[in-house]
Every structure is written in structure tokens, then in C-alpha cells.
């Protein structure tokens, strides 16, 4: 379990995160949502130990995320940020996914047959094995996101945090990523945390919701509660219409 314990974070005199406490359980699919500037990405950076909060702490299975080494932390949580830095232009897909095995490699970074089998397993799971010899720079946005997810899975962490994974994707790519995340959570029991501004995307994966507004915890609710209690309208200070078709709910501005 991830426990966020009364964290606060300030930049100069501005409160970015204020006294947030929450729990994320193993096996959950959780979407962290809120208006622009609410503090979602800052919260993600605190949960993953990239940013140190001014007050409070984050623990994963009772281990303080700031007091463990990089390899141990990598076994607890993997993180796909909004912008992934593909610093080596000639990385192949297979090489990039292999980098996810970092926590388990020896001093020399040796990729054993066992590692390679796992790399190929996660490439097959995300349906990118056929791309294994392609260079990252030649891939579409949707293909790159699948590669990012495969690398995160290869890390075999307890939790996976994805920041705005659906941004800039066309409808087909978004649909494929949506189906992949649902399969990973429901069938393969992965614990997935989404940072997103796409409300319909979060509803489509049937996640639980953590709502952040003005740097504070606004609400924690399930999908049906978000709709039935019209929490979206209160969170974003605007009216929405909820449309239902084929057991799916779609939200649109009123």
C-alpha cells in the first residue's frame, strides 16, 4: 500500500500541495484528476520520491520513499512522466524496454536469458514485440506510449504511475492504450495510478478517483459516485451532462 501522510509542498510563498493524506491499495486502478495547476504532477513527483515534501512523507509498504536506494525504490514504483527523455536517438524498442530491468541487473548490467525472456514477455503483453528492432524515433505517439508502459512493466514494480499517458494520442491509439490498461489491471492485477485531465478516459478504465483542487484533497470516490453525486462539476466549477450508452458513461460540458 502507498500511504501519503499529510504532505505539503511550497515554492517560495505559494502552497502547491497542502496537507494531503491518502492511501492507494495494491491492485487498484486510480485516477488522480483536477483542474490545471491543481498540483497533480507535483503530487506524482512526491509519491515517486522525485520531489521532497516540506512536510509529511510517503511510504510504500511502510518504507519511506526518500530513505531507500534507487534500486529498491524502482522495485516499489515505476513512473512514466508526461515527457519521456529518449536521450539516445538510436535506442531500439528492445533496448529501451530492457532498461526497465535496471533494478535486477548486476554491476556490469548483464542481460541474462532470464532477463531477456521477461523483456520479451512484457513486449508481447503490450503488443509491441513486432517493433523490437525499430528505433524509438520512428514510432508513432501511441507506439511510444506502449513502449513506455512495457519498460515500466519490465521494472516489475509494485505500483505503476502514468502521468498524462493519453495526451496527444489520436482516438485509435487512446482506445488501444485504454484497453491495455484495463487488461493489465483487471486480468493481470497490476496496480496502476493515472494522472490525467481526460475525464472520459478515466471513466472508461473504470478507475477510482482521487480529486485534487487548489493543492488540496477535494474528494476520493468511485466512478459511480463521481457521476451520481456530480463531483466533477464541483471539482471543475462547471456543469456537465452525463450520457450513457452500452453501459458506458460519457461526460460532456453542459
UniProtKB/TrEMBL annotation:
Q: Does the keyword field hold Mitochondrion?
A: no
One GO molecular-function annotation for this sequence? ATP hydrolysis activity
What's in the keyword line of the UniProt record?
ATP-binding, Nucleotide-binding, Transport
Q: Which Pfam families match?
A: ABC_tran
Q: Which residues form the ABC transporter domain?
A: 2-239
- Kindly give the SUPFAM superfamilies that the UniProt entry links to this protein: P-loop containing nucleoside triphosphate hydrolases
| Record PANTHER family | METAL TRANSPORT SYSTEM ATP-BINDING PROTEIN TM_0124-RELATED, MOLYBDATE IMPORT ATP-BINDING PROTEIN MOLC
State the family it belongs to: Belongs to the ABC transporter superfamily.
**Protein name per the record:** ABC transporter ATP-binding protein
Supply the source organism for this entry.
Candidatus Mucispirillum faecigallinarum
Amino acid at each position: 500500500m502507498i500511504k501519503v501522510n499529510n504532505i505539503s509542498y511550497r515554492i517560495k510563498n505559494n502552497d502547491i500541495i497542502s496537507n494531503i493524506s491518502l492511501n492507494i491499495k495494491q491492485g487498484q486502478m486510480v485516477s488522480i484528476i483536477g483542474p490545471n495547476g491543481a498540483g497533480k504532477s507535483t503530487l506524482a513527483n512526491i509519491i515517486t520520491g522525485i520531489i521532497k515534501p516540506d512536510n509529511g512523507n510517503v511510504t510504500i509498504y511502510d518504507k519511506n520513499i526518500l530513505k531507500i536506494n534507487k534500486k529498491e525504490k524502482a522495485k516499489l514504483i515505476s513512473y512514466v512522466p508526461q515527457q519521456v527523455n529518449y536521450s539516445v536517438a538510436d535506442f531500439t524498442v528492445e533496448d529501451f524496454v530492457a532498461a526497465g530491468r535496471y533494478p535486477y541487473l548486476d554491476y556490469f548490467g548483464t542481460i541474462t536469458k532470464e532477463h531477456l525472456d521477461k523483456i520479451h514477455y512484457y513486449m508481447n503483453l503490450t503488443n509491441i514485440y513486432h517493433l523490437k528492432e525499430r528505433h524509438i524515433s520512428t514510432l508513432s505517439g501511441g507506439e511510444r506510449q506502449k513502449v513506455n508502459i512495457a519498460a515500466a512493466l519490465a521494472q516489475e514494480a509494485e505500483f505503476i504511475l502514468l502521468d498524462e499517458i493519453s495526451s496527444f494520442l489520436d482516438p485509435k491509439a487512446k482506445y488501444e492504450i485504454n484497453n491495455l490498461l484495463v487488461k493489465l489491471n483487471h486480468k493481470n492485477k497490476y496496480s496502476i495510478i493515472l494522472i490525467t485531465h481526460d475525464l472520459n478516459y478515466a471513466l472508461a478504465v473504470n478507475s477510482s478517483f482521487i480529486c485534487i483542487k487548489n493543492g488540496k484533497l477535494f474528494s476520493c470516490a468511485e466512478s459511480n459516485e463521481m457521476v451520481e453525486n456530480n463531483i466533477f462539476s464541483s471539482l471543475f466549477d462547471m456543469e456537465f451532462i452525463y450520457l450513457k450508452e452500452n453501459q458506458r458513461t460519457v461526460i460532456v460540458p453542459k
